[in-house]
């Protein structure tokens, strides 16, 4: 009778032990899952990428150099004479005439003997001595006709209709050793004086349409 009464208690104890074991296994599984989840969340922090390199790669990937951009950059590297003038650099001819293109156009280029109209303003040591930039009519003349000082005669065939150039004319291409005597409203220009001129071609009969097409 005593042996029979112990059997239920033993079975109950066995069941309790089994349930406790299962509960322990469940708790261990939960802990393992939490550790795995935490490790997964922390993994990016364990091996961070360098932000600078990442930004550089992103910038390069987002802004690839296209063929058109490459060609544009290549074209910009070549500076044509007209562009150099527009940037404000002086050019010097073999005779010593210095010139700078103040306003550049794609107008017609006159040749020796062509009839054109010009405007100019001449100065010596900063003092204006001749100015027809605001007169009612420009000055009409034949290119290369010799009616002006040598420096202007040399510059005109190099210019185009609508352009404005700044000239620095050495004495031997200006009034030379004789200079220019004073006259009504015009001061005396000493011998071999270097002069500065602002020179524009404002009309070229028969070719004004070429200029309008470029404006």
């Amino acid at each position: 009778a005593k042996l029979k009464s112990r059997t239920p208690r033993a079975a109950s104890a066995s069941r309790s032990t089994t349930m406790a074991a299962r509960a322990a296994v469940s708790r261990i599984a939960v802990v393992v899952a939490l550790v795995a989840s935490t490790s997964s969340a922390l993994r990016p922090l364990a091996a961070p990428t360098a932000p600078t390199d990442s930004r550089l790669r992103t910038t390069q990937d987002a802004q690839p150099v296209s063929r058109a951009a490459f060609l544009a950059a290549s074209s910009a590297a070549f500076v044509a004479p007209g562009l150099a003038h527009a940037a404000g650099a002086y050019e010097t001819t073999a005779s010593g005439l210095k010139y700078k293109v103040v306003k550049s156009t794609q107008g017609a280029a006159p040749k020796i003997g062509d009839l054109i109209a010009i405007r100019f303003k001449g100065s010596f040591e900063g003092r204006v001595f001749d100015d027809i930039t605001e007169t009612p009519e420009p000055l009409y003349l034949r290119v290369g006709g010799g009616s002006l000082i040598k420096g202007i005669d040399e510059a005109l065939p190099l210019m185009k209709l609508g352009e404005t150039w700044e000239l620095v004319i050495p004495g031997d291409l200006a009034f030379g050793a004789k200079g220019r005597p004073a006259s009504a409203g015009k001061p005396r220009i000493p011998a071999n004086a270097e002069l500065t001129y602002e020179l524009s071609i404002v009309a070229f009969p028969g070719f004004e349409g070429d200029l309008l097409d470029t404006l």
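Strands lie at 91-92, 98-103, 115-124, 127-131, 139-142, 164-169, 195-203. The helical segments are 2-46, 51-62, 67-77, 81-86, 150-155, 208-214.
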